[in-house]
Amino acid sequence: MTLDQIKETLKGPDYDFLGTDGHLGENIMILTLGGSHAYGTSTDTSDLDIRGCALNRKREILTGEKFEQVSDEQTDTVIYSFNKLIGLLSGCNPNTIELLGNRPEHYLYLSEAGRELLDKAHMFLSKRAVYTFGGYANQQLRRLENKSARLVGQAENEQHILKTIEHACYDWKARYFPMPEDAVRLYTDRAVCEELESEIFMDITLRHYPLRDYAGLWSEMQSVVRSYARTGKRNQNAIGHGKLGKHMMHLIRLYMMCLDILEQERIVTYREKEHDLLMEIRAGKYLDGAGQPIPEFFEMVDEYERRLEYAGENTSLPEQPDEEEIRDFVASVNERVVRGEIGN
């Protein structure tokens, strides 16, 4: 679809909810493209994904009434509430940080507050990107290995799980009761369980630690382990050629985007410079005659992993986003809503 065709499509009855839903209408701050159209990797058969952000209404701000997002499955549209999106952006969530790096023409609507949000995108950038993008990419790689016929030993799979947990643990200190750096040590060793070759072990040294916070830590680690078990069950059979190539392409795109954040302190969603490489990957250039990834692809992934590790160690970005600037901006926007200056 061309951009003009996309704009015409949004005028159709399927998208009437953008104007009629009480949470949207005049509350919309940003309306933009998502998915392959935003990345510059769309084909003639690509779905249209619409993403955006809407102001929280006065009642929600003053009473704490919950509104997180409006999702329309029929049109693949997701509009986040302002307050929820701020939280996701602060965590450098890959699926939402990309909304701040689209091409100018891909913003189908921008309110004044929406433009302010784009202008302040840098305040959300931090070293968290190493762990959010890296953790997501690591899970994507494991899924890719499951979807392909690549033989990955149990010990290597256990390393994948450990790495994903380590990424998830990065901001524990910001969300849970403080603990010494060496209070929780995770590592792999020869398995005690007879069914495994290798497994993850824990060395824990905690005193007078809040039980509920510890339960939260444990729950997060358990969730990662369970997610890998579900992945294995879902992907016992190899998936189709075209879909596997698309999956491979998005894995590399994640690395590219994270490197831009760490090295250039920029959010670049549309991959113009790497377009040809990404489309070659999607088209199957790195698949063999049986439709499986060739070794050169995994060598490419290894190289991006090394680059990401180096960039994370040498970036000038702060450990955490600029929380004070973020809070000031949220207060400014929400105050204008309460005063009746913006939204409805």
UniProtKB/TrEMBL annotation:
Please report a single Pfam family linked to this protein.
RlaP
* Tree of life domain: Bacteria
Q: State the PANTHER family in the record.
A: NUCLEOTIDYLTRANSFERASE
Protein name in UniProt = Uncharacterized protein
Natural source organism: Enterocloster lavalensis
Species lineage:
Bacteria, Bacillati, Bacillota, Clostridia, Lachnospirales
